[in-house]
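Thread: Modeling a multi-component assembly for a lab meeting

Hi all, long-time lurker, first post. My supervisor asked me to bring a structural picture of a complex we are working on to next week's group meeting, and I have zero experience with this. I have the sequence lines for every component (378 residues in total). Could someone generate the structure of the whole assembly? Inputs are pasted exactly as I received them:
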Amino acid sequence: MGVTRVYSYTLAGKAGVTPEQVRKDFSEYGIKGNRRGGYLTESLVREIEVIFSRDRESNVVVVGMGNLGQALSRYERFAGRGINIVATFDIDPYKHKSRSDIHVYPMERLEEITERFGVTVAIIAVPEISAQEVCDDLVNLGVRGIVNFSPVLLKVPQYVVVNNVNLSDEIESVILSVRRMKDEQSLFL
Amino acid sequence: MGVTRVYSYTLAGKAGVTPEQVRKDFSEYGIKGNRRGGYLTESLVREIEVIFSRDRESNVVVVGMGNLGQALSRYERFAGRGINIVATFDIDPYKHKSRSDIHVYPMERLEEITERFGVTVAIIAVPEISAQEVCDDLVNLGVRGIVNFSPVLLKVPQYVVVNNVNLSDEIESVILSVRRMKDEQSLFL
DNA sequence: GATCTATTGTGAAACAATTCACAAAATACA
DNA sequence: TGTATTTTGTGAATTGTTTCACAATAGATC
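Re: Modeling a multi-component assembly
Sure thing. I ran the full set together rather than chain by chain. Output:
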C-alpha cells in the first residue's frame, strides 16, 4: 500500500489498544523501531510473521462435521493465516458428504491421515457426549493442541494445549452487558 | 441428580479453576454458602440463573448467512441458554434458502423484524467488506450488543457493546503454544 | 450438648498487566 | 551543521487479579 513507516499510535488506533501497549508488546519480542521514525512496515511485517509462525504452515484436522464443523472446514480466512485444514472426520461421513469440499473421512482413518500430514493441532466440533473420547484418540495419535468447540472441560496431559471456544458464552456475555447497561441507565430516570 | 450440596472445590474441579476463585466470585455477587455445609444446589442454581439473566430469554438475529451464519442459526445449544435466534438475514436470501430451518430474510426487512421481536443483540457473520455498514444499520435500529465474527474492529457509540470472535486467532494461538512447547522441549536434547 | 472438623468468607500478600512519564535518539528543518 | 520536534523504549507507579492464610462457624460425631 506504499506505506513505509507506521507509528505505535497508528497501529494502536487500528487495533483498538493504547500506543504504550503496542510498544511494550513489540519491546517484549525484541522488535525495534526508530525514535522519531516509527517502525518500518516491511521489516515489521516480517518480524511479526516469524513471531506468529506465519512463515510456516500448519496442518490441522476438523473432527465432527455437523453444522459448525462444516462451516469451519469451509472457512476461507484460515488459508491466509497459514492454517491448512487437510482433512475432516465424522463417525458418519456419508451423512455429511459435502459437494465441492474437503473430503469427510470416517474416524477409522484418523491415524493414517494425522500421520501422513504430520498433524499436531485438531479442531473438535463433535457433540458433548463424544468430545472426551475423540480428544483421547487425538492425543494418542500425537496431537498436541486442541481447539475445543464442545462445551466440556477436556482432560488432557499437561503437554497438550486446549483452547475452549464456547459460542453460547460469547453471546451470553453480550446479552448480560447490554442488560447491565440498560439497568444502569434506568437508574437516572 | 439428587445432589443437595456442593462445595467450592467440587465446582472448581469441574470448572477447571481454584476453589478460592469460586468463592471470591460467589462472594462478589452476594451468593452465600454455609461454612462447613457448602452451597445448596437448588438455591445456588436459582441465584446463578438470575445473575446470568437465564430467567429471561433474549431475542437475537444473525446477519450474514454464509457457512458460519448458517451454522450459528442451527446451533441447538443456544436454546437451553435463553438465546432465541428469531430471524436471519442476508443480502441474497435466495442463495441461502435452507431446508427446514429459520427463514432467511432480505436486509430490507431488518427494521420490521428487529422491532417486532424487540431485538437488542445481533450476530454479525458477514464478509469483512460489509461488516461496518451492517453494524451501523443495526445500531440505528436499536441494537445495543453485537457479537462480531468478522475480522474488523467495528466503530460503535460507547453505549453499544461489541464482542469480537476471531476463529483464526483461536486456532493460531493453539498452533503457537504447541510450537513453543516443542521448542522448549528440544532444548533438553 | 460438648467437642471436633470441614468449609466458607475475606482481608492481606503476591503476582500480573496497564498506564504514566520522561530521557534518549532519530529525523526535519532552518 | 545546529536546533527543534517527534516518537521510541522502558523504569516506576498504578491498577487489577489471583492466591494465601486463617478466623468464623455450621455441621458431624460421640
